[in-house]
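> example.struct
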């Protein structure tokens, strides 16, 4: 081994270990946070704010769906919601407004923030409870009725898009 390689190899190995840790630690935290989440999307009769029936299992039969649990009072959701809204133009998105008031308040919030993703209102937390949602924002990727991934906290648009693509690629 030449001298230059011997000098750079420890730094390269250290950088690789840090990169591996940056990828692995958040995944392990997500696994622990959502350890009580079901494997299958709960069977629920849902209705969006426009009064349309929503069957998540049917919606996710052909392609992955992003299910976004958020709240009007959540400061992190204000950062994540625009990325979810952008993604809704390319992928199916269903959002669940958790404990955010009545339909009028949620509709006004969506209009005020120029968000037009499909939304189910969950004023009492009854929709989100069977999912094991403990924090907002929480994002779940559902494909063919199966919850393929779940994460809480700040997530980027590219991160959401990657999760959707992985769910599609890793079909069982």
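> example.seq
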């Amino acid at each position: 081994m030449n001298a230059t390689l011997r000098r750079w190899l420890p730094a390269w190995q250290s950088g690789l270990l840090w990169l591996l840790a940056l990828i692995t630690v958040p995944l392990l935290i997500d696994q622990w946070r959502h350890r009580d989440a079901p494997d299958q999307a709960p069977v629920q009769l849902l209705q969006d704010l426009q009064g349309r029936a929503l069957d998540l299992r049917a919606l996710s039969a052909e392609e992955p769906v992003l299910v976004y649990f958020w709240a009007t009072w959540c400061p992190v959701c204000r950062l994540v919601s625009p990325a979810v809204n952008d993604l809704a133009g390319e992928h199916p998105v269903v959002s669940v407004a958790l404990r955010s008031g009545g339909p009028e308040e949620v509709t006004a919030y969506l209009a005020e923030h120029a968000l037009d993703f499909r939304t189910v209102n969950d004023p009492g937390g009854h929709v989100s409870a069977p999912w094991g949602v403990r924090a907002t924002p929480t994002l779940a990727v559902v494909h063919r009725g199966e919850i393929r991934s779940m994460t809480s906290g700040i997530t980027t648009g590219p991160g959401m898009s990657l999760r959707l693509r992985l769910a599609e690629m890793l079909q069982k």
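> remarks
The longest helix spans residues 3-33.
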